[in-house]
Amino acid sequence: MSVAPVIFVIDDDPSVRSSLKFLLSTVGLQAETFDSADSFLHKKPPDVPSCLVLDVRLPGLSGLDFQRELATRNIRIPIVFLTGHGDIPMSVRAMKAGAVEFLTKPFRDQDLLDAVRVALDRDRARREQENEMWDLRRRFDCLTSREQEVVSMVVAGMLNKQIAAELGTAESTVKVQRSRAMEKMQASSLAELIKMIEKVKPSKDAS
Fold first, then answer.
1. Among 100, 131, 162, which residue terminates a domain?
2. pTM, whole model, 2 decimals?
3. What is the rounded CA–CA span in Å between residue 62 and residue 54?
4. Do 117 and 31 have their domain in common?
5. Structural domain count, the chain
6. Which residues, other chains included, contact 62 with Cβ-Cβ below 8 Å and sequence gap of 6+?
């Protein structure tokens, strides 16, 4: 079952918040509105695909400063910027920092809706990738320490007999350990196992 996404609208103008919420509702999208970046930061957002529709000029934390603050907190939510006072350096800065779009008021409704769709698609893809990585790490953690050693050597390109010599064990034992590791990782082939381990190992080594 797919989870309904949420669009967070942050703008200090109540009429803008209201009109954006209505516009998004016309295409079946749910929106929550905030009058400042701080008010958003005090709320724990639901764990669903989402994006921000964010005014550049806000009381307190500006939109661009808020973008930087989110990055500092490792809150990776796609942003669609709105501004009535945009300039090229400002938009370049926002886009370089990962913004999906930078729209100058007045903008076409369809341009905003298109940007929101792109942002939601980006967030869905990120979530799927993170879930896949979490699942791979979980499987990798189910391997015994010896199985982890063996598959790491397989990924390094070593043959069974080389691994056996390195570990001081029989080649038949290495084959069994490799086979068990493939089963636990749910890898259908050696090539797939290698891809999985290459994805997981950098994260394991960095932690």
1. 131
2. 0.75
3. 10
4. yes
5. 2
6. 37, 56
